[in-house]
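Continuing the series of single-chain predictions for the mutant panel. This is the parent chain; the variants come on the following pages.
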Amino acid sequence: MKTILVTGAAGFIGSNLCDALLERGDKVIGVDNFNAYYSPETKRENIGSALAHPNFQIVEEDICHEQPLKKIVADARPDVVVHLAAQAGVRPSLEDPHLYHDINVKGTQNILDACRAIKLSRLVMASSSSVYGAIHEVPFRETMDVSQVISPYAATKRMNELMGHVYHHLYGMNITLLRFFTAYGPRQRPDMAISKFTHLIEQGLPVQMYGDGSTYRDYTYITDIVDGVIRAVDTPLGYEIINLGKGHTVSLNVYWNSLVNT
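Parent structure:
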């Protein structure tokens, strides 16, 4: 049995990950601040099944609170930390880049320092496919130059990757960063297009698509995302960045037709 600390535990990916880790026999300590980016009650519902498990504990705290976070990590003494907590959303980051820097950069710095303080050897962190910016060549490869990101959100995720390398180099920590590609499935954030489309269709309401549907994305089902995270948890790789997606882009038109014709 491993003890695994998961930040952002009540979110979409975090709550599904906690359930999977508990199912395989791990002890899980979740950390979440239940902020109002979307309904805190929805997040509490996300961890409903985990809360019923004897090997799960949730701690309500903000990763931006340095000293309380250090104490949580020091008291837990986890074998692995999975850091998923972040201020999400590309478009909102354009409106408030300071908020994204405070949470995603400074908050992640607090995670790195808390892990270093207990000499933790293994850390898995969420990055994002948004770091590829305006690159149009597909499939994306981890070796591509991602120095020209095009949103504050993407910039914060790239900074996380760079600081991860610093801590690996200086302190020998095994740090794996996973670039998630458009995760979808049960508990998806309500602001995401697929979630919006699905709820409207279920209610028999019209669904409006903006644009001509020619944009392409690599859609990745949540169980595949969770499987990839768990493999990273179990496999120390030194310092590694991994694309976690299907590897096959699909146009919005194709995805749209699959939804409305189901």
